[in-house]
Amino acid sequence: MSPSPSRPAPFGRALCAMITPFTPTGELDLDEAGKLAARLVAEGCDGLVLNGTTGESPTTTDAEKAALVRAVRDAVGPGPSIVAGVGTADTRHTAELARQAERAGADGLLVVTPYYSRPPQPAVEAHFLKVADATGLPVMVYDIPGRTGTRVEPTTMLRLAEHPRIVAVKDCAYDLLGSTRVIAETSLAYYSGCEEMNLPLYAVGGAGFVSTVANVAPLRLRAVLDAFDAGDTAGAARLNARLLPLAERMMAGGLPGTVTVKALLGGPVREPLQPADRETVDGLRAVYEALVRSDQAESLV
């Protein structure tokens, strides 16, 4: 079911924060990236977010980022949305990456708050406005203060919403009150960036999710939104609850989501990240297999 006119979703509802595959020797694996992207779209993803946190953007070069966007665009065709992560701590570099992503075929830009330098709110606002002015692409503001050290305050978000190309937010601020206020007062499309907030944010008018867990369970995550849109709120809550053990193990178990996804799908990470140990891999697989068995049992009822 498509989102209603009152629920803007410029990039679709179900977006995967896609991993970046590497070869055993640590090189970018564009063939595998294309295959993964095609599978994710076939299994219910409306769009893919590349070169984000889950995509190991801190350890990929500018050239690799552009090559990944081009390869995924070729693999999935013109239909699904491709949102390219271009965020850095440097406004000028971020604008350069934005222009590069536009040339490579991206449909939108994911722009994180500048990190480490912890700029005050007027500087945060100026950063996003300059990047939005750098291309003709729509911008998704990435608000994740737990990683960047700086929040995009709701009052700042209200002002950013006035820019015609700032259209969406990936919300990892853990402030449902503030997010609900901005949703109510603007046309910004709010995408949950934290698995446990997918359904609560959607229930107050959010657009959908940008999910790391979608790398391994895209259909199941989308089913939660489908049930809610169909008016089956109890069913949406039940499907959401069924996903929680996997989401908790992948996202709150002490390892980055990139590591836990690759523990399930295979493939190396780049240092300084390290692969999951055998005990962690076995635990993740056990939880995932339990989810599969649960799905199979319900289908027999």
From TrEMBL:
Pathway it works in? Amino-acid biosynthesis; L-lysine biosynthesis via DAP pathway; (S)-tetrahydrodipicolinate from L-aspartate: step 3/4
Site annotation (Part of a proton relay during catalysis): which residues? 53, 116
Please give the Gene Ontology molecular function terms for this protein: 4-hydroxy-tetrahydrodipicolinate synthase activity
Reactions the enzyme catalyzes = L-aspartate 4-semialdehyde + pyruvate = (2S,4S)-4-hydroxy-2,3,4,5-tetrahydrodipicolinate + H2O + H(+)
- Top-rank EC class of the record's enzyme: lyase
Active-site residues per Swiss-Prot or TrEMBL entry: 142, 170
The compartments listed are: Cytoplasm
Kindly state which keywords UniProt assigns to this record, in alphabetical order: Amino-acid biosynthesis, Cytoplasm, Diaminopimelate biosynthesis, Lyase, Lysine biosynthesis, Schiff base
Q: Has UniProt tagged this entry with the keyword Oxidoreductase?
A: no
Coarse class of the protein's main subcellular location: cytoplasm
Q: Where does pyruvate bind?
A: 54, 210
CDD domains found in the cross-reference section: DHDPS
Q: Which Gene3D superfamilies match?
A: Aldolase class I
The organism sits in which domain of life?
Bacteria
EC number(s): the record gives 4.3.3.7
Q: How does it assemble?
A: Homotetramer; dimer of dimers.
Function per UniProt: Catalyzes the condensation of (S)-aspartate-beta-semialdehyde [(S)-ASA] and pyruvate to 4-hydroxy-tetrahydrodipicolinate (HTPA).
Q: What family does the Swiss-Prot or TrEMBL record give for this protein? A: Belongs to the DapA family.
- Name of the protein this chain belongs to: 4-hydroxy-tetrahydrodipicolinate synthase
